[in-house]
Design brief:
The structure is a homodimer of 249-residue chains.
Chain A lengths: L8 E15 L2 E9 L5 E2 L2 E5 L4 H13 L5 E8 L9 H7 L5 H8 L3 E8 L14 E8 L10 H15 L6 E5 L3 E2 H12 L5 H11 L2 E7 L9 E5 L1 H10 L6
Parallel strand pairs in A: 1-6
Antiparallel strand pairs in A: 1-2, 1-4, 2-3, 2-7, 5-6, 9-11, 10-11
Chain A binds a DNA duplex (30 and 30 nucleotides) through helix 6.
DNA sequence: TCTTATTGTGTCATTTTGACGCAATAAAGG
DNA sequence: CCTTTATTGCGTCAAAATGACACAATAAGA
């Protein structure tokens, strides 16, 4: 979205991505700071006329993070007529975020498709702001800045969906480095759930899923006993994703 | 959608409802038969410019079934550029389903929001066809007629989502009559899952959820031992919906 | 009254879960 | 160099949930 040729885009339709990473035992989202404003936004974009909506989300993700082949999933369409602040677009114009030429386009009603992406924090080297923003940064989910429109709600919804999915889907691939320790995986779960888990029962349950492979090596350098390094068994991980993990019938 | 004033609608956006009912131990969907064609479609509609997308789905449901206050849930946005048959709209014109005046509107790219609704079969008294269809009927999920565009895929996706949700959400309210027997509830589960369940273990598990109330009465008139009639404890049912049933953490 | 299919209720072995104990580290401090 | 300390690997045990199945109590029809 560098040069904005509005004719290219499908009117009234946008995508917003909740890009989540895990760093220092915190869940973080990649956010954009609007130019000249104390407002932040989710990375988003418009959908080209000859572009699948899913593809548009992939493109947004690619443009901000430089990453391809990321776990990306549509989770909700936000279709309310009033998605927040009535004076929003006027504010953008006033602050010079958009010019008069874009005013009409932005003023129209938009519905937006929410996607969430799980990415490995360290692989995102230089997050790129877009045309309307001055920076692109990781922000901890606890303690978010002021978000524009209904973006806080979108983020909240993504978090909810993810939390629910923890109960019947594996998570961690694409969010943790290729090799990780059991305590690291547990920390991810605890952060997402917002509560502590018993270390020993957690390990038993995770191993029971059969999606982990214990490498022969340990993570050394830590202050205490060196934990084993694990990898995901991608074949079985994928099957877990497709079929579900705690299927009671 | 009786008089079609296209100015009223948000361009490029539609909703489609997978309206499911349960009758004679079969899962059925309410479908529309297109005028003069051997093609069927999901009940759908356009979104008014000042109407929430969710509200549009409610309206469609209301217009076809006459019912309000139904369990209705958005499950996916179908946003591919090519959602099926390229010659579809030309076919509609040729068969007289739409006039020339509507050709342009229909020819544009649409993304559609999929909703599924669970309704009590017997409460839908006279399903109403819309402007483009000649009848509105219940069709068994196994053995569907030929559906237009990607509607078969939409229906399939709804079924998938529902099946998955059986594992962590209660179901039956709005789909079964107010009072029902355990074998009836089990038949619903078996139909959705497409497999047989042990009668006794099923009952134990359902009762364990604590969302059922056993009324003092039995269903009489059957050929054999009269089963107890149950009702849902709506308070607890709703809590089950919100919090999930098989939450492992 | 007897037959037959269906429902209510319960048993039992197995598996899974929740709540802990204890020994083996690995760095840091004295 | 030996002790301290926090962390990890591995295991135990009772309680709860699950899967497989037995048996008695119907209710209509032969």
């Amino acid at each position: 979205m560098l040069a904005l040729n509005l004719d290219k885009y499908q009117p009234g339709l946008s995508v917003d991505c909740v890009i989540l990473g895990f760093h220092q035992n915190e869940l973080k989202a990649l956010l954009l700071k609007m130019k000249n404003m104390d407002k932040w936004s989710l990375p988003g974009g418009f959908v080209e006329k000859d572009e699948d909506v899913d593809k548009a989300a992939v493109r947004v993700l690619q443009e901000r993070t430089g990453l391809k082949n990321i776990f990306l999933r549509q989770f909700h369409l936000f279709g309310e007529v009033d998605r927040g602040d009535r004076g929003h677009v006027d504010g953008l114009l006033q602050k010079g975020v958009i010019g008069k030429d874009l005013y009409g386009w932005f003023k129209q009603r938009f519905v937006t498709v929410g996607y969430y992406a799980l990415v490995e924090y360290s692989q995102v080297e230089a997050p790129q702001p877009d045309y309307f923003s001055e920076s692109c940064e990781w922000c901890a989910i606890n303690g978010l800045p002021d978000l524009m429109l209904d973006h806080a709600g979108i983020l909240e919804k993504a978090h909810e969906v993810l939390k629910r999915q923890l109960n019947y889907q594996p998570i961690g691939l694409n969010l943790l480095p290729k090799r990780f320790t059991m305590p690291e995986l547990q920390a991810l779960y605890e952060t997402l759930l917002g509560k502590a888990l018993d270390r020993r029962n957690f390990q038993r349950k995770m191993l029971g899923y059969g999606i982990l492979i214990r490498t022969g090596e340990r993570r050394t350098g830590g202050a205490h006993k060196s934990p084993w390094l694990y990898e995901f068994d991608e074949e079985k991980y994928r099957r877990g994703l497709a079929e579900g993990l705690n299927v009671s019938w």
